[in-house]
């Protein structure tokens, strides 16, 4: 098994939201109204689970190029979520926002999740339906889009 570096997920909307949230918070700080201990108790596990989920997804697809799939991956995290890499990045962003006490990141995360769903995931699903037909329809019926 050889991992393809191009399969490591770096969703632009999530990264843009993180950077924008950090920059705006520098100018106009706006924090989450949780005690610091609770923010860390919730934030670090969210980051850890997000990294684990995205990493597990990358390992599961192994050397297949996710940009040009040759089949449908139905094992590993793909047995529970059709988009584990995006779920992982969402958890990572949420964890960072909590730890840094930055509500801007959370607001941009909402935009990133909406954008990713509407303009990336739905397009990917349509493409997979065209490419794999009934096989993808069956998978789509059996496995949730996110969680």
Describe the structure concisely.
With 147 residues, this protein is mainly alpha-helical. The chain is 67% helix and 0% strand.
Could you characterize what this model shows?
This protein has one domain. It is built from five helices and no strands. By secondary structure, it is mainly alpha-helical. The two termini are 27 Å apart. Helices cover 67% and strands 0% of the residues. The model has no long low-confidence stretch (mean pLDDT 93). It is elongated.
Name its key features.
single chain, 147 residues
Look at the structure and give the mean pLDDT. 93
Structural class: mainly alpha
Count the beta strands: 0
The helical percent reads 55-70%
Basic shape:
elongated
Number of helices: 5
What's the Cα radius of gyration?
Answer: 17 Å
Q: How are the SSEs ordered, and which strands pair?
A:
Blueprint: H1 12-27, H2 36-61, H3 84-100, H4 103-132, H5 134-142
């Amino acid at each position: 098994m050889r991992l393809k570096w191009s399969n490591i997920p770096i969703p632009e909307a999530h990264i843009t939201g993180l950077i924008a949230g950090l920059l705006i918070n520098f100018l106009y700080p706006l924090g989450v109204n949780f005690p610091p201990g609770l923010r860390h108790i919730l934030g670090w596990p969210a980051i850890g689970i997000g990294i684990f989920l995205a990493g597990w997804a990358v390992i599961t697809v192994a050397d297949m190029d996710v940009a040009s799939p040759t089949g449908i991956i139905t094992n590993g995290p793909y047995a529970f979520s059709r988009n584990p890499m995006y779920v992982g990045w969402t958890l990572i962003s949420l964890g960072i926002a909590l730890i840094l006490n930055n509500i801007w990141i959370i607001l941009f995360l909402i935009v990133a999740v909406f954008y990713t769903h509407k303009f990336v995931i739905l397009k990917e699903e349509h493409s997979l339906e065209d490419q794999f037909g009934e096989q993808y329809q069956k998978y789509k019926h059996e496995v949730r889009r996110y969680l």
